[in-house]
Amino acid sequence: MATAKEFVLRVSKIDGVAGCLLVRDDGVLLGQTLDDPEVFSSLVVLSGSLGQDIMARTGFSYCRHLSYLRRGKRHFYVFPIENYLLGVVQRSDSYVPDMLDAVYRLISRVSTRSSAVAAGGS
User: Fold this and answer.
1) 78-111: per-residue pLDDT in tens?
2) How many angstroms separate the CA atoms of 73 and 51, rounded?
3) Using CA atoms, how far apart are residues 46 and 94, in angstroms rounded to an integer?
4) 86 φ, ψ (degrees, to nearest 5)
5) What is the rounded distance in angstroms from the CA atom of residue 52 to the CA atom of residue 61?
6) At 3, is the pLDDT very low, low, confident or very high (cuts 50, 70, 90)?
7) What is the pTM of this model?
8) What does the domain layout of the chain look like in residue ranges?
9) Which DSSP string do the residues of 90-101 spell out, in sequence order?
10) Which long-range contacts (CB under 8 A, 24 or more apart) does 88-95 make?
11) Closest to 77 (Cα-Cα) out of 19, 10, 1
12) DSSP letter string over 24-51?
C-alpha cells in the first residue's frame, strides 16, 4: 500500500461499496470517500475499542469485521487492520458476500496480521 489515500480509493472502487474511511486507532482520519466522514469516524473508533473488549472477554483472538445494519440496506462495516480501522458503507444494491470477500482480499494484501490469520496463524 503506497498511501492511505490510495488504499481508500481502491476500497471505494470495490463493487458494492458506497464509500469508506480509514482511521488510525487513535482516531486520526487518514483518508475517506464519504461526504460525512465525521459521522462515521467516531463510530469506527468506538467499534474498534468494543471489538477489542469483546475479543478479550470471549477469548477470541481476531475479529474480521463488525457490522451495523441501517435502513435502506446501506449497512456499515468496520474492519480492524492492525493499528487502523476501515469503515465501509455498503451500497443498497450490493451482493454482500462478494463485497466482503473483495474487501478481505484487499486487506490481506496490506496487513501482516490478516495474512497470518488466513494462513492459519494466530
Assistant:
1) 999 888 999 999 999 999 999 999 999 999 988 7
2) 22
3) 26
4) -105, 125
5) 9
6) confident
7) 0.84
8) 4-116
9) EPTT--HHHHHH
10) 88/11, 88/17, 88/19, 88/20, 89/17, 89/18, 89/19, 89/20, 89/34, 89/40, 90/16, 90/17, 90/18, 91/16, 91/17, 91/18, 92/18, 93/16, 94/15, 94/16, 94/17, 95/16
11) 19
12) ETTS-EEEE--S-HHHHHHHHHHHHHHH
Summarised one tens digit per residue, pLDDT across range 33-61 is 998 888 888 889 888 888 888 888 888 87
Compute CA distances 113 → 14, 40, 42, 122, whole Å: 22, 24, 24, 8
Beta-sheet pairing, 76-81 with 17-24: unpaired
- For residues 29 and 80, give the distance between their C-alpha atoms in angstroms, rounded to a whole number: 14
Q: CATH number of 4-116: 3.30.420.40, 3.30.70.580, 3.40.50.1460, 3.30.450.30?
A: 3.30.450.30
